[in-house]
Specification:
Elements: H1 2-44, H2 49-57, E1 61-62, H3 71-81, H4 95-104, E2 112-117, E3 123-128, H5 129-140, H6 148-153, E4 157-164, E5 167-176, E6 181-187, E7 198-200, E8 202-210, E9 213-220, E10 222-224, E11 234-239, E12 247-253, E13 262-264, E14 273-282, E15 287-295
Parallel strand pairs: 7-13
Antiparallel strand pairs: 1-8, 2-3, 3-6, 4-5, 5-6, 8-9, 9-14, 10-11, 11-12, 14-15
Length: 296
């Protein structure tokens, strides 16, 4: 009798095991479904502010053609990017060019008169080289490294008014490493020029920002001639490239009529050279700097 009951109980055991297995499968399925529902809900949630900002940053947007994030820098460098492509940022600029850019940003109040005089009897003035270097970093980024002695050896000069009466030519003569000062002198500037045609040779036509990069497109023509130093007729030639190999137009004026004439890039926009310049975000300063440019 006991043996029979034992056999029957053993027959019931597999049924209990099957039931437990089925229950476990159902529970796992329920948990999996709940996890999927939570995940789907999270995906459907709108992005948080930080995530939304990151998404917006990678979208290319048009910006003002005079956006302050690049335009002030452009005004310092445009004479140089218009004549050749610049691939490696400030490293592709000549020493003299960098000197002019750095000195132009010096305020008259930063130029200090000394008691020392030049061989012509004029006073020397000093400029803190850190001011000069910071001007370069504003244009080309915080990683700028230059030899300050080189600018004195080149005797870099710029026009700087408001310091010495009747003398607007500022010339770098020496750099003192101990005091970190440039020693500069002033001299007169050349004679007056006569009337000329108004020449609008360049025009920014597009500016976009995408992430940490600003891309600017500019059209430019190259104009030779003008002024009153030549006899009538005054001949002006307009070229489409800096090498003057593509002559676009020739115009003739007289001394009496040239001042009322306007030569503008808009009249040659399809034949003009395109300059594409790139500005990158300096993560250290949070400001943009000039990175490169190409002529096409």
């Amino acid at each position: 009798m006991e043996q029979k009951e034992t056999i029957e109980e053993r027959k019931k055991e597999p049924k209990k095991g099957i039931l437990v297995t089925v229950l476990m499968v159902l529970l796992l399925a329920a948990f999996a479904g709940l996890g999927y529902a939570i995940g789907a809900t999270k995906m459907a949630e709108p992005p948080k502010n930080n995530e939304k900002n990151q998404q917006e940053e990678v979208v290319e947007k048009e910006i003002s053609l005079e956006d302050e994030r690049f335009f002030n820098i452009y005004n310092q460098i445009y004479p140089y990017i218009s004549i050749r492509s610049i691939v490696n940022g400030y490293k592709d600029f000549r020493t003299y060019e960098l000197g002019v850019i750095g000195l132009k940003g010096v305020n008259p109040s930063d130029i200090i008169e000394t008691s020392e005089t030049t061989q012509w009897g004029d006073h020397y003035y000093t400029i803190n080289a850190d001011i000069f270097l910071n001007n370069l970093k504003d244009c080309f980024g915080s990683e700028v490294k230059v030899d300050l002695n080189a600018f004195a050896e080149e005797h870099v000069s710029v026009q700087k008014t408001g310091v010495v009466a009747n003398s607007s030519g500022m010339i770098v003569d020496f750099y003192d490493e101990n005091s970190n000062l440039f020693k500069v002198r002033f001299s007169g500037i050349g004679g007056m020029s006569g009337p000329d045609a108004q020449k609008i040779t360049r025009k920014i036509v597009k500016a976009n920002i995408k992430g940490d990069t600003i891309t600017v497109e500019e059209k430019i023509i190259y104009v030779d001639g003008g002024g009153i130093s030549t006899p009538d007729p005054i001949v002006i030639k307009i070229y489409g490239d800096p090498d003057r190999s593509r002559l676009l137009d020739t115009k003739e004026y007289t001394k009496d009529t040239i001042a009322s004439q306007v030569i503008t890039v808009d009249d040659y926009i399809d034949q003009a050279t395109t300059i594409t310049h790139i500005y990158k975000l300096d993560k250290e300063t949070g400001k943009f700097y000039f990175a490169s440019s190409t002529l096409n």
